[in-house]
Structure formats: C-alpha cells, structure tokens
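Consider one such protein record:
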Amino acid sequence: MKLLSFLLTLSIFFVSFQASSASRIIIENTTLIDAATLARENMTVVVQGDEIRSIEKSGSKNIIIGTEDIVIDATGKFLIPGLWDAHVHLTFIPQLDYETTYKLFLMNGITSVRDTGAVLSKLQPAIDFANENPHKTPRVFFSGPLIDGNPRVYKGGEPGFPELSIEVNEDTDLEALIDDLIKEGVSFLKTYEMLSPSTFVKLLEIAKQKNLRVTSHIPLSMGLGNAVDAGLGGMQHIRNLDLACAENAEEILAQRQELLKNLDLLPGSALRAKIHQSQRYAALGNIDENRCNKIIKYLATNNVFQTPTLTINTVGSKRFFADSKWQDTYKLLPSEVQKSWLDSSVNLSQQPVSENNKMFQDWSFKIVSLFNKHGVKIIAGTDTPIGFLTPGFSLHKELELLVEAGLTPLQALRSATITPAEFFNLESKMGTIQTGKYADLVILNSNPLKDIKNTKDIYKVILKGHIQN
C-alpha cells in the first residue's frame, strides 16, 4: 500500500536519475500548440528525463546538439501536450486486460488517465504494473471504489453491473474509510447515486479536510444545488442535471425520494434504472430555461468541473459501434472481447434509434454549449470501455463531439490537457508546453486547430521523456 504522492515523487526521481546521463530528445522545427499560448511556429523543444528542459526558436545558438542526442525533425508538424482520458474504468471488463488498454491509450497520444471507479483489490494489479513499468503506461490517477449507499448500483451480480462500489451509510466511520483510501493511493473520490444526503454531505466535509476533490453522480435523494453547496468538486455524464433543470424539479425530487424507499426491494441497478426511466425524459420535455441557466452559472461560480462523456451519452443515437471503421478498432482487443463486441454491435445496429436517444443527445449538446458559454470547466472523458468505446480511440471521438457541441478545437484541446490537470492542482506540471513541465508530448502530422480530427493523425508520442513509437 503506497501513497500516490510518494509514488509520483519516487517515479519522478527514478526517471530523472536514469536520464541524468542519458541522451536528450530534441524536437526541431515544429509548431507548438497548447490551450494557454498562441501557436508558436518554428520552435525546438529539448527534453531530458521526465522534463522539458528548454524551448527555443529553431536555429538558436543556445542549442548544441550532442552525439548521443536523439533529434526529431518535426518540420511541418505540430506538438501538443499529452492528452488525458479523464473517465475510464480499467476493471469494467475483466477480459480486457490493462496491458492492452495501456497500449491503446499510448497509441492514441493519451499519456494520463483518470480511473473513476474500481474496487481496489481488482485495480491493484493495473496500478502495480504502472508503477513497475512507468515508461509503458500512462500516468494513472484513480478514485478507488464508487462510494454508494443502499442498495448500491455496481455491486456485481447483475449483467452489465460489475462490482465497482462499496456501500456506506450514516453509521459508517467515513473518516477511517477515507484515510484507508488515501493510504491505498487514491487522488480523488467518486460518490454515487444511492447515497443519503447526510452521508454525502459528511463525506464531502471530510474529503475537504483531507484536501481531496470529490466528483459525483449527484445522489438521487437530493437536489443539485444542495450537492454543490456541500462542496462538490465535479460531475460526470451531466447526470441528474436534467432533473434539476425541470420546471417541476422539487416535485420530481419528492417523487424520487418516495421511489428510493424501494418497497419492491429492487437491486440498486434496477432501482436506479426505474427512477431515470420514469423521470429523465419527462424532465427533458419540461425544462425551465431560466432555471437551467442559473444552475449552470452556479456550477461555474463554485468551480464544479464537468465531464460530459458525450461519447457515452450519444452511444444510442450516434452509434459509433455500427460503423465498420469503428469496428476495425476491435481487432486490437483480446479475441474474446473482439468477438463479443462485434456480435453485439451488429445486432444493436439493426435496431432503430429511439426518440428518447435523440432527445438525450440534443440535451447533452445543448448543456455542453451552455457550460462553455458560462465558463464551466469541461474535462474530456469517455467512460471507456462501456458502450463499445475502444480505449484511446474513444477520446478522439469525444473531442469531435465537444466541437460539435460548440467548443472550438482549441477549447476541446484544453478539456483534454489543461483542465484535467487543474482538477488535480497539477497545472504547474502538466497541460501545456513549458520549460520545467513533464515530458508528455504528442507530435501530430496535421494542425488540430484546423480540424480537431487531426489529433488522431499522430506521428510520435513521448511519455515521461521516452519515445513510444
């Protein structure tokens, strides 16, 4: 059991020590693009160890190339910071092993990931592998288990709902629980939908004392405003914002609270599904625009990070899984997963798109546009591997959807570089191309500011100062 901060420090020291006498990587004649600085043309970046050592105009006399230096001529190419997928589940499909998943992330320029829910005993092998093979894996940040109430949703046993969670209530020693998670190395917490209001508020209070951000599916038992007031740090999937924006939000909250009594003793997954099916689409047909704008402004004022996961929100309407080119990405998965995904994709693609799926897509795009308009911080994340979202490839699809929802390519790039670093207060070390920052970089053949799809046109990936391809 290791503290995450200790592991990061040890990893940085180890890489720096190993690289102290090693060759440098010199990337010449490239255009630097990050979301904090105007594009810088004809630049040379010098990397040594896990650090950007210098940035100069190409041809500068300050750069003296040694015989052991590795020189990359990036003329006509574009250098961006390493990308994040800030909503992944490394243990969701046991047959999809973490080594394959890590390779797919790096192949796609994703040098950092945020695992947003896994039982630590099942996640530990992936964490250990990342610690033992730092130059073969992205930087891994993890929350540990979903912290849920009764009946918890992801308890295992029901199809499609593997064990990802733990159950807590008013009698749980929450401080001891959080202390144990910190000892295991978590860097944030993830709370879930079946928590009671009092337990949720207490959790956030303790997390604040421990300097941990909490991201959440808003508990179904409480209103969004109260969750924000409790100190909420982030939200996933725009989940439950539809309910909060409804003209009759107070009425449907009361209805939810009655349904949560669960007189039929449904399992958590079925109870949650029943509540969402009975309320989501009715709420979407009864949105109070003024109320919704006020809520979104409140999210911005209180710095509540949003991970919309448009890829998963639109899986029923966009149907990437029905595209033969998308199905080609399955060939990179273990054979058992490849066959299962392909069979399911073919079967599901024959079903018509429902009006509800289209309605939820339009709502999701509209809300992301309003987030952007009102200054809510948006983080790119996908929910891979749920919904046939192939690790790595799905992040580029998420960026495309964010642009479709109204972000500029530069703003979409920010959501996958600077903003996730800000969530962890790591913006001084990650997210932009600056001297002293981590050496996580992606060289693109094409300009992502002209077309966000160009983030897929990858020439080379540099992770922690090591060339990956």
Summary: Residues 380 and 416 are 5 Å apart (CA to CA).
